[in-house]
Amino acid sequence: MKNLDDIFTDKVLKRGRLLITNLSILLKMTDIYNSTNEAVNNAAQRFLSELQGIMGGEEELSIRMADESFFIEDVRVRTTVADLDTFGALIKSMTERGIGTLTFRASLSLDSVIDIAYAIRRGHDVAEIQSSVDEKFLGVGGQIFAQKEGGIDMRDTRLIARRAYARAISSFEDLNKAIKSGKPLNIKKTKRAIQSMVDSIIKDETYALKLTTKKDFDNYHLHHSANVAVLSIVVGKKIGLNKYQLSRLGLSALFHDIGKADIPTDILNKRGELTAGEKALMTTHPVEGVKQLLRARGLSEVFLISMFVSYEHHINLDLTGYPQSGKTPNLYSRIIRIADEFESLTSGRVYSRRAIGNKAALSEILKNSGVYYDPALVNAFAGIFSEAA
Amino acid sequence: MPDEKPEGIEVAEEEASLVKDILRTFSKTSKAFAVYPKDNPVYIRFADELEEKFGSFFEKHETLNLDVSQFSLNYGDKEVFYSEERQGNMALQMYVDGIRQISFHKGITHEEIAEFVNIMRVAPTEDNLEDDVVTLLWEKDLEHISHFVPEEVAEDEAALEEALAEAEKSESFESAGGAKGGGGFEAGTLSLGIRLSPSSPEMLEALKLEAGLLEGEGLIETAVDFFMERMSEEDDPSAISDYSKQIAKLFDLMMEHKDVTGALSILRKTNEFLKSAANPEVIGAASGILSGAGTYENLNALIKNTADLNIINDYLSLLNKDAATGMINVLGETENRKLRRQLCNVLVPFAKEDIGIFSAAIKDQKWFLIRNIVMILGMSGEPSAVPIIAKTIQHNDMRVRREAARALDNIQSPDVRKPLMSLILDPDSGVRIIALRALRKIGGQELFLHILEHMKMEKFKERSLDEKKEFLEAFGETGKENAFPMLSSIFKKSALFQRDKNIEMKAAAAYGLGRIGSPQAVELLKKGLDSKNNVLKTACVNALKGAGKK
Questions:
Q1: Which residues of A touch B198 (CB under 8 A)?
Q2: Which residues of A touch B194 (CB under 8 A)?
Q3: pLDDT range class, residue B3, cuts 50, 70, 90
Q4: Which of B96, B112, B256, B545 has its CA 20 to 30 A from that of B357?
Q5: CA–CA min distance B211, chain A (Å)
Q6: How far is A259 from chain B (nearest CA, A)?
Q7: Is A269 helix (H, G, I), strand (E, B) or coil?
Q8: B292 touches B248 (CB < 8 A)
Q9: ipTM confidence
Q10: How do strand A101-105 and strand B72-75 relate by DSSP bridges?
Q11: Are A215 and B179 inside 8 Å of each other by CB?
Q12: Among A153-167, B40-54, B503-517, the least confident range
């Protein structure tokens, strides 16, 4: 038996298109006719009828526009080819006025619907529309809430960001298991997650960065890798890498510690100091990572870059660090070096020291800019915190 | 949210027909793209046709929206594509990858269409564990093609998502200050107390250029260097083998993409690397890369993908003897003379290393290949090549036998005498002459007697002047005083009958007398200077010169 949510969703799927279409037609009518014209009247009637049909007994109903799609409450309205003109016109109207959401109240009447339509047509922005609608609807019971969100719904972006982050961790965990069992690595899911992460960082990097602050000590290495990926992508974005490059950077950042797959979890997640033997084991992971990637998968751009990063991500700019190398690490490795260090410092890299705050961690990195870390990249990283709002 | 397809808007048959036509053309184009390269006229024709079909549609519409089901594509309320094929089925492929709607927008370019066709070809291959249609569409970022994938969330992801959403409500999330110490990710929340010098545009540009080097050919070059460095640091044989296999794969990739210059670069690096390698495992593994480059398939690809003989020569010269078999096969097929010459030159050192590689090729059906093999063996100068060459002295093609004689001439070994002796009995005059010249260098009593037998043959006189000259010269040379009686008899003989042939014999005998060079021989030759016959007179003049007399 369907629950109320399912019933509502069904209604939106069946009637949502018609509702949006009728709203668009109504607004178009206001361009052509005055408010007493029968055509306007009929269009308003049709809209109200659909609205009430979907609302049922609900007090209000929101129509939200995000990424050139419509959502009624959180249910996406499906479109077909025939809808493009009418939907496109409504998107244009709302976008021009900065409207993100229209919330209709149950006590709407036909007249108030017509008034709303003309208020939208005449208004230049949300404030103007809202003020004229508020005056009009006092005593009648209908109100409009509109949010200027630049055409992008922030809730939607955040959901995408959380989902991408969760998917990156989940798929990375699967990959670790595949490595341990010697199976070939299918990274499609991981790639989608990172691509989604890149998209959400391009739209709202601040929120994505905040996700990295949720520390999970039981699954430290998984979250650590995902956090390093986020931080690296943000730095990459700041220095002007394109989407394709950002996804490569994100994937190789996710895999940077893959050499730890065979290291026992109790060592990886150990909270106290490591023994000398345990430390020595940990320093093998850059080379082990290369071998893991070679065995699990061979040739592709992603895996080649990931091998370089695995090997180089603990080599400093002055070639100290490990493993010993006579070559300057490549760009992605240098970015991930900074992100890795920052993330470890702020997580209280469980096996060594207590966690420190962002400011202290950044200061630590700045102190060694030009010695351990590429100064241009440090600048970009610091820019996450110190740009003007 | 239930994944329920809404009812489609009613669409006219004519319109649906147009869309069906586009999709039919799409399928044909996809097959053409799989077979023909980008610059092939067939490829171009199919791509143009598909673009035209889209163009016709977009004359009247802004967008082509297709709803994706497992085996079908719908345009409005009309099914415009249906297939239950498991391979090459674009509906199924998109469906499996989660796409439920694909849209093409007005303004779509030729390049975007081609990219989309190639995405649909590449994504479904069995060994593609990295990409699907969705990831490829994202990477290509096609402005006029969009798609819809309803989100599906796995249980573990949902749990983490929920935890993150919960965390969002906390104050610490908003301030996002890390574990302690404050300072969030909001812009301007940290006062660092230091002045940061902004990176210059040039610095940023340099970083972006550096990122570009990690793509395409630059990436491959970096990868080859990387693997070679790892090989040289490594002790574990299986790791060394893994690294070298990757380099070999990168080489193969270059060849697949017809990038011969890139492939050659890898060979050069490998060659240089081998010069400094000390670990036998590393040497073996790196040598394997060169061996792989010398397979018949790769050599064919090399010849097919470049006409530059310098590049071909450079490539061939970097290969090791494992390439010999492949090269011999190519030698048996190519008609390009310069290339054949190059291959022969490159194969000569391999003959010195391992003569056995060539013994099978001697049995080939193609006379010209056998001739080349014989030439190579001769150029090698290896005494161990003689038995192999000897197998060809009875070959039915005289060009092979001539080459055998030349090859034996090039080899310093007593073993060449016997096959050369056989060759001076060859039915072909050219073969006999070459063999005889070779034997003259060896000399000896046996040759003298052999020639004597020859001269007694009935048809000896019928042979060409050049040949007779060679034989009688050799006769005089090897016999010296023992040859004088016979040569003087021939020289003095009347030439009344069979005049031309007898004159030639006399002339040939003159050369023989010249080789003897004794006072009696010289005296005879001087008498010959009075001859009214130019052939004879000339022979006497030359013979005297040869003897050091005027």
A1: 379
A2: 366
A3: very low
A4: B256
A5: 7
A6: 14
A7: coil
A8: yes
A9: 0.78
A10: unpaired
A11: yes
A12: A153-167
Q: Strand, helix or coil at A254?
A: helix
Contact between A362 and B204 using a beta-carbon 8 Å cutoff:
no
Per-residue pLDDT reduced to its tens digit, B418-438:
999 999 989 999 999 999 999
Of A180-194, A366-380, B334-348, which range is least confident?
A180-194
Output the pTM of the full model: 0.74
Q: How many CA atoms lie within 13 A of A84 on its CB side?
A: 13
Bridge partner list, A369: A373
Q: How far apart are CA B54 and CA B146, in angstroms?
A: 15
Best A81, A218, A368 residue to mutate vs chain B (most B CBs within 10 Å): A81
C-alpha pair distances (Å), B110 with each of A172, B49, B375: 37, 10, 54
Question: For testing the chain B interface, which of A14, A210, A234, A381 should be mutated: the one with the most B CBs within 10 Å?
Answer: A210
Contact A228, A344 (CB under 8 A): no
Residue A80 has pLDDT above 80, yes or no: no
pLDDT tens track for B197-221 = 667 888 888 999 999 989 988 999 9
Distance from C-alpha of A376 to C-alpha of B355, rounded to nearest angstrom: 60
Q: Does B209 contact A at CB distance below 8 Å?
A: no
Tell me which DSSP letter residue A369 carries.
B
Q: How many angstroms separate the CA of residue A40 from the nearest CA in chain B?
A: 24
The nearest CA of chain B is from the CA of A388 a distance in Å of 5
Q: CB distance B1–A10 less than 8 Å?
A: no
Helix, coil or strand: residue A239: coil
Q: What angle do CA B270, B274, B280 make, to 5 degrees?
A: 125
> What's the pLDDT at B248?
95
For residue B148, the cross-strand partners are B101
Question: Token digits for B130?
Answer: 């990295």
Q: What mean pLDDT do residues B28-35 have?
A: 88
Cα of A330 to nearest chain B Cα, Å: 8
Query: Residue B41: is it exposed, middle or buried by C-beta count within 10 angstroms (0-12/13-18/19+)?
Result: exposed
Token code pair at residue A75: 């249910």
Question: What one-character-per-residue DSSP string does B481-516 give?
Answer: GGGHHHHHHHHHS--SSSHHHHHHHHHHHHHHHHHH
Six-digit token string for B259 = 């990038």
Confidence of residue B254 (pLDDT cuts 50, 70, 90): very high
Phi, psi of B102 (to 5 degrees): -125, 135
Tell me the CA distances in angstroms from B411 to B379, B418, B450, one per residue in order: 8, 13, 21
Give me the pLDDT at residue B170, please: 64
pLDDT one-digit tens code per residue, B135-160: 999 999 898 899 988 766 666 677 77
Q: How far apart are CA B496 and CA A331, in angstroms?
A: 97
Within 8 A of A294 by CB-CB distance, chain B residues are 242-243, 246
Pairing state of beta strands B63-68 and A75-76? unpaired
Tokens describing residue A147: 């949010």
Residue A71 touches partner B, C-beta closer than 8 Å:
no
Cα B121 from Cα B547, distance rounded (Å): 81
Where do the H-state alpha helices sit in B38-154? 41-58, 90-96, 110-122, 133-140
Nearest CA in chain A to B162: A162
- Rounded distance, CA B378 to CA B386, Å? 8
